[in-house]
């Protein structure tokens, strides 16, 4: 019968742990929002949370791109990213233009 009594106690402990963890997560979110609101008030601009996250991600990407990473195999920085350009036709002079299209005479029986 000890096994049956232990199960509810461990379940209660598990629920209490989840509540405490949830409380701390909510508290962290609340404090981060307060810090964000304080920053918005200091700058005088209204920035949504998603815009802030996007700007932080873009800043991290730019910093990562600005760092020159040296390849251990060659000892050289990576080559610049490749750009693919569409092939361009050479310019056509007016003398080289084909003659204008002339419709054939109508079909007659």
TrEMBL record:
UniProt-annotated stretches for the region Disordered: 65-109
Lineage: superkingdom: Eukaryota
Transmembrane segments: 12-31
Biased composition (Pro residues): 75-109
Keywords assigned: Membrane, Transmembrane, Transmembrane helix
Protein's recorded name: Uncharacterized protein
Species, as recorded: Zophobas morio
Classification lineage: Eukaryota, Metazoa, Ecdysozoa, Arthropoda, Hexapoda
